[in-house]
Amino acid sequence: MKAVSLKKMGELENDLVEAFPNVNFIFTHGVSEINDHDKKDLDILFGYDGKLDEDFLKECPNLKWLAWYATGVNNLPLDYMNNHNILLTNGRGVHAKQMSEFIMAFILDDYKKMKVSFINQANKNYDSKLTGNRVSGEKLLFLGTGSIAQKTATIANAMDMIVQGVNTTGHPVDGFSKTYTINHLSQALEEVDIVVNTLPETQQTIHLLQKEHFEKMKDSALFINVGRGTIVEENVIANVMRENIIRQAYLDVFENEPLKPSNQLYEINNITITAHITGNGIENKQEVTEIFKRNLNHFLNKNALIENKVDPKTGY
């Protein structure tokens, strides 16, 4: 059994070799460093490299399992993987820890007017009358009720927020006071103060949010996007914010990444931008590797996976 990494693992390399002496591990910096010999007979790819594409997978005829270290799989050649019965796992759950903290940081940054305080500091303006708002009692709606939303809901509930969600079927989720089906999205948007997108990219979610959805929201609404930038077309969110249809947006993901310096979103005052960093964490590699190890043990013994399986047909 040959397992080839898509990134260097540091001290974790020795851990893997010692834990699985019957596996031939090859550690690389990514697809450009994997030689033709290893491509032909590798069984497992693990790690992350944004350059992995269908052409590369076609050179790996023996590939049985891709253990993707990121959560999002939308840029992978999913149709090819599905047609060739390549198993897929991801880093779901690990990144939720960082992302839940970022979501709450965005909310508190906005509600406690921290940006205004920073501007006051830069202008040497000491405004002791500046008053923020409480998050207690605010209605928080998640588009998508998966691991990111659930982790954040735990924190939000502890702060006495009212947590609601939208998912495919409207099924109930622990920590959510109410859930809606995706068909009732417009109704769900009317009732809340904060909307957070955590949905993955699928054919059903691309450009799901249109201008009329933002018009359904309260004028005072806060919109946060940490899911996928394709949930809303760039020109739509730009115009929505220019026209002050809602009050504020925090965007970590974008339809076209990376943003060029000339991008219009940089010029809109009620948009706060972070550079797709909400899932970053120094602990990620080790924690995703622990999932990989548990899956690898099961794969070697039972030829099956037990955690974080992704269906290439749906992308989640």
TrEMBL record:
Source organism: Staphylococcus cohnii
InterPro entries to which the protein is assigned, alphabetical: D-isomer_DH_CS (IPR029753), D-isomer_DH_NAD-bd (IPR006140), NAD(P)-bd_dom_sf (IPR036291)
Protein's UniProt keywords contain Transmembrane: no
A Pfam family: 2-Hacid_dh_C
Name of the protein this chain belongs to: NAD(P)-dependent oxidoreductase
Oxidoreductase in keyword set: yes
Domain D-isomer specific 2-hydroxyacid dehydrogenase NAD-binding intervals: 105-277
Keyword terms, alphabetized: NAD, Oxidoreductase
